[in-house]
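Archive transcription. Copying these from loose printouts into the bound notebook so they stop getting lost. Printout 1 of 2:
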Amino acid sequence: MPVPPLRYEIDFADTLADLTRVEELLSPVGMAYFMTTEVGPYLRERAKYRFEAEGDDVSGQWAPLSPVTQSIRESNPDWPVGPSHPINKRTGELEYYVTQSTPETFPTTLGATTRYPGRAPSGGELKSKMETAQRGRAQPKTVPRPVLGVNETDLLFVMTRLTFWLGGGVVPTV
């Protein structure tokens, strides 16, 4: 008995719908949404942990405060924190800025850009605190204790979340 010829029917409607969906997700507006809802909150949590642990795998463990700084803290009864801890915190302004700011995300011709933490301080004491934390200072001698940074672990997180985002699957929570 002869075998009947095979007949294929291909419905491209689902394929075209999937491609359209992926194109929308990868558009500048779609990527800005991804960066705002996935990457921004992740960076905020990383920064919170960095302050709590006084450093991490990105910044390294923060150097202890100098004996002079500890002495100044200890001799001032109005000083709001202890003599040696927490590091990078006196008024709480720097920590609040780094851990509570809303990321600034906007579409670009290549996708989207996220600035974290949000709008950078334009001047004054907060800008100086940020620069000192990130780079240190020559006078008075202050070692860097970076509060911002990313590494390969963070890249892996973003790439994994982006894969789930594009696949339309459920994105696992951290």
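Printout 2 of 2:
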Amino acid sequence: MSALHDEYAERIRRLGVRYEAAWVPEVRAGGRYSNDHVRERESRALLEARDGGAGLIALDRGGLAMTTEDLASRIETWLTPRGEIVIGGPLGLHAILLDAADHRWSLSPLTFPHELVRVIVAEQLYRALTLSRRLPYHK
């Protein structure tokens, strides 16, 4: 799946959009940490790793569910001048990060593996960018 993500990342870059993927270490659930504590630690690490001044888009199943056309109408605004899309761990994001987010985006009410979400997000960003720029791909 990493190769597929990288393919879409490169396509996005060819459109002149800066695209980088980074991550913070996952905090393992169970043992001495409660699920809420794990979410909080991961969310704090994600907030600390942010590039200051960028808009924050949090992936959250309670966020805004959109069609490709909806995303295309928002994407340039969300990413201008810079935007960061944050994917939480298996337990999701904590309220401290969700409250700090400028936007919440829901891919689905389902739970997906992190690696698959990276591919879906990159592909959807590319699809929305091509649609908003009237380039062939989205159909």
